[in-house]
TrEMBL record:
Protein name in the entry: Deoxyguanosinetriphosphate triphosphohydrolase-like protein
Coiled-coil blocks: none
InterPro entries, alphabetized: dGTPase, dGTPase-like, dNTPase_2, HD/PDEase_dom, HD_domain, PHydrolase_assoc_dom
Domain HD: 75-219
Length: 405
């Protein structure tokens, strides 16, 4: 598809009519006076950046466990890359950059140590008590578990930021109330009873841009990290016609380029093509939809910010390549098994003896709780751990800790 360059925003400050407007936000759970110097969405973004949860992302796994090397992505560097892409897309489409960036920065708060492996293990441990979902955990962190302010738990983010966090991947329920991707996690249902996030509608365009930026970022950086690790080769990338074409383009322009520069020239083109594809599709969808407000974006019956059919097929091919060559590689699977054991062992140990949790707050809070509430409390504690802390905690409690190198 072709981008309409005449409608792009390049920092002029012009805001599209369908943009979320921080000056007419639906507000916060606990009313607060406005800021003299920042919009409501700027304040949300700043609160997110200053959290303990944000700092912990630097020692949480993206794909490769952090001891593997200093140059592999972590949850933090991944999050920063997502935020950069989201902000660029928001600027191009003239919507609120701060809201798009804020949703991108908070979207992975709920991830456990050891990436999706840790999430799967914790979900298995918590199955009798409602399971575990990293998106719901992100909501718990920003509405309950961060304890920084005198007048409330959590961050007291605006409705729009919370909506974006919960619904950036689309509606959670149908108009008649059925879960669209399985049962809606209980923490989300509980919060929505207090502060209705309208689970049957799409989120703002800003949140949609954060979601597609996540796909663009990890598709690209997992290729980069895979090449660095040796699990991927340039020959393997030839399996995807899109990537094969990019490599041919780089070889033609720079025939004797060193390996590391060659990889970067390919991945930077990958990001550019994907970003431009999303902009063109969003422009076409907006032209058809003709939204007159952010509410019209939410009321649409389809996502506005997405890939074209051709790029969606490329996205599918890249994910297939990454799953077969990296995520399911025998060495990665060995490490994943060890990581899952660490999480499962710690959960059982803390359930058996909550005093083993190294925090007076966590131990005191668990007194008198039902078994289900205690399990959720232990889950909160475990989910907040970094990889390094979980490995150390396991080493203190058990004679043998799996080697994740």
């Amino acid at each position: 598809m072709t981008i309409d360059t005449g409608t792009l925003g390049f920092g002029s400050g012009e805001r599209a009519i369908y943009s979320s407007n921080p000056w007419s936000s639906r507000g916060r759970m606990y009313p607060e006076p406005g800021s003299l110097t920042r919009s409501e969405f700027q304040r949300d973004r700043d609160r997110i950046v200053h959290t303990t949860a944000f700092r912990r992302l630097k020692h949480k796994t993206q794909v490769f466990i952090s001891p593997d090397g200093d140059h592999y992505r972590t949850r933090l560097t991944h999050t920063i890359e997502v935020a950069q892409i989201a902000r660029a897309l928001a600027r191009a489409l003239k919507v609120d950059e701060d809201l798009a960036e804020g949703v991108a920065l908070v979207h992975d708060f709920g991830h456990t140590p050891f990436g999706h492996t840790g999430e799967d293990a914790l979900d298995e441990m918590l199955k009798p008590y409602g399971g575990f979902d990293h998106n719901a955990q992100s909501l718990r962190i920003v509405t309950k578990l961060e304890r920084r302010y005198a007048e409330f738990d959590g961050l007291n983010l605006t409705w729009e930021s919370l909506e974006g966090l919960v619904k950036h991947n689309g509606p959670l329920i149908s108009p008649t109330g059925e879960g669209l991707r399985g049962p809606v996690p209980q923490p989300i249902l509980d919060y929505t009873q207090l502060h209705d996030l309208e689970l049957a509608s799409f989120a703002s365009l800003e949140a949609q841009l954060a979601a597609i930026s996540d796909d663009i970022a990890y598709n690209t950086h997992d290729i980069d990290d895979g090449l660095r690790s040796g699990l991927l080769t340039f020959d393997m990338l030839e399996e995807v016609p899109f990537l094969s074409g990019l490599m041919a383009e780089v070889r033609a322009k720079y025939p004797n380029l060193e390996r590391s520069r060659f990889a970067y020239e390919v991945t930077r083109r990958q990001i550019t093509h994907m970003v431009e594809d999303v902009i063109a599709v969003a422009q076409a969808n907006l032209k058809t939809l003709t939204p007159q407000s952010a509410a019209d974006i939410r009321a649409a019956d389809h996502v506005v910010a997405t890939f074209s059919a051709e790029m969606a097929e490329t996205d599918r091919q890249i994910k297939k390549l990454l799953f077969s060559r990296i995520y399911r590689h025998p060495e990665i699977m060995r490490i994943r098994a060890g990581a899952a054991k660490i999480v499962s062992d710690l959960f059982q140990a803390y359930m058996d003896d909550p005093t083993l949790m190294h925090s007076h707050f966590w131990v005191e809070q668990i007194s008198g709780l039902s078994e289900a509430a205690r399990a959720r409390h232990v889950g909160d504690y475990l989910a907040g751990m970094t990889d390094t802390y979980a490995i150390r905690a396991h080493g203190e409690l058990f004679d043998q800790t799996p080697d994740l190198r």
